[in-house]
Amino acid sequence: DNMTDRQGALGVLANSRAPEREAALGAFYERYRGDALVLDKWFSVQALSTRDDTLERVKALAGHPDFTLSNPNRLRALVGSFVANQRAFHNASGEGYRFLADMILAVDRSNPQVAARLVPPLGRWRRFDETRAELMKAELQRIVGTPGLSKDVFEQASKSLG
């Protein structure tokens, strides 16, 4: 009967395989869709999920009508939460790194400062095994090599490679 309990229950369901999962996420969204702060939590709890399909879910949420790259809070709720999700972000496929780099490049066009603040998780490549480190560096190199890149993102990404 309160937001703390609802959010806690939603977090449990977001990680589960229960058939009620989708209905609960949908009901929570419908109930709070007009409240930006609560909606940020809805995006965040899904990006932090420990499920195997979290990256696919995050990609789908990036296309959600209530997600916009121009809202830094919403971007942090989805992308920032995803990169904090060690299991999903550092999946051996490297797809989490590619997703982050794609988001950085997309945000760079409209808000270079916010985009630059998304770079550091890729810059931590020295802390990971050789395979993940190479995948992270490849995304940093792709970012640095992008024509028209802002000075902010270029500086952050090139420094991360050094």
Describe the protein.
Helix 1 runs antiparallel to helix 2. The model has no long low-confidence stretch (mean pLDDT about 95). By secondary structure, this protein is mostly helical. It is built from 11 helices and no strands. Helices cover about 70% and strands about 0% of the residues. The relative contact order is 0.09.
Assess the beta-strand content as a share of residues.
under 5%
Largest sheet: none
pLDDT averaged over residues: 95
The share of residues in helices is 55-70%
Which consecutive residue ranges, at least 5 long each, have pLDDT under 50? none
Which structural class matches the secondary elements?
Answer: mainly alpha
DSSP helix count? Answer: 11
Radius of gyration: 16 Å
Write down the secondary-structure element order.
HHHHHHHHHHH
What distance lies between the first and last C-alpha atoms, to the nearest angstrom? 51 Å
**Can you count the beta strands?**
0
Outline of this structure?
Helix content is 70%, strand content 0%.
Key terms:
mainly alpha, 162 residues, 70% helix, 11 helices, 0% strand
Layout of secondary structure:
Elements lengths: L2 H13 L5 H12 L3 H12 L6 H9 L9 H13 L1 H4 L5 H14 L3 H6 L2 H4 L6 H15 L6 H11 L1
